[in-house]
Amino acid sequence: MSYYVDGFVLAVPKAKIEEYRKLASLAGDVWMEHGALSYVECVAEDVPYGELTSFPRAVQAKDDEIVVFSWATYESRAKRDEVMAKVMADPRLKPDMENMPFDGKRMIFGGFTTIVER
């Protein structure tokens, strides 16, 4: 079975990682309630700063920030679009822009169709 995947990369201040974990846990619940097949959030452990490109460079991570990589899976692009519309309308995730635990302007995200799967 092929899946549709949304991927996200962002930088979170190390001092706010627990606050971010709580937000991510809530977001995961919301995504799953609205129909995602899976939802995963990971913090960087082995992501070197590359000379030309890298995860830290991509999100302009500062010395006091950690890179977060996350993804959600769906049965199809159509299902993802349906789920995402519900997620974006869910009042539990309405952002308090002044108190977000990360800079959303530096977040990278996109949707992907699987081409190899084991």
TrEMBL record:
InterPro entries: Dimeric_a/b-barrel, DUF1428. It comes from the Bacteria. This is DUF1428 family protein. It comes from Bosea rubneri. The lineage of its organism: Bacteria, Pseudomonadati, Pseudomonadota, Alphaproteobacteria, Hyphomicrobiales.
